[in-house]
Please model this.
Amino acid sequence: VVGVGGHHRSRRRRTPLSAPPAGGGEPATVDAVFAALADSTRRQLVDRLAASGELNATQLGAGMPMTRQAVAKHLAALEAAGVVSAERQGREVRYRLDGEAVAQAAAWLRDVGTRWDRRLAALRRHLGDRPSGG
Amino acid sequence: VVERELVLPVPAEELWQALTDPGALGSWFGTSVSWDLRPGGAAHFEGGEDGDRDGLIEEVEPARRLRFRWWPVGDDAAEGTSQVTYELVPLDDDGGPGTRLVVTERPAPAGPPAASASATARWTTWDGVLWSVWAATTGAVGAGRR
Model:
């Protein structure tokens, strides 16, 4: 029924954050997105960007009980995961949400979920078709 | 994290066999599976919609728990794999033997298992957050939501 032989290894490098392959699924990036969003402060920053579009670090941290350095650190983490992108405009750096990494993470959830739904329905049928208890 | 939970009307041992025996897997898993079912054992998945994959068995506790990683053949395993866990809980039910199966699949960060264990501990279900951010950044509010 099964055989291991004959698979070829070809090294395919992928660009980690920018320009992900369309629909290709990039688990490392997906993981980074999830890890970045696991922090409530970072989710708050993401919410602010989702509402406002584009903000600088001062605007993003306004009213938050933390230092500018702490805000900068969170923004750096979000940027590293590809959730936000930063752009220097004159003397300030403005942040905006970068939809691609997040869309990819969402696509991963959808695709993997669909596959498990299909497999588990087949598992249920498989077990149902068998005489049980032996 | 993708998580699915279902109750199957068979004893845990029978479910375990369906989840692990290559012959049984052939009739439902969607790809042919060959694996060395012990921690550190190699796995290979061939055919099906996922394409060929290689894998690594991480944890085997017969009739209770199986965890493995898998990744598309050709990808460097360290670059990004995902981790699948089956957890089986026997149900003590008057209606006959039954087993609860919880399946989770999560992207596994690159790096040694110890590092990934602490990283995965931070996980929760992110569907809601992701969809709202995705909708905000693409303007596709409401579209694509399942």
In short: Chain B touches chain A through 64 residues (CB under 8 Å). The radius of gyration of chain B is 17 Å.
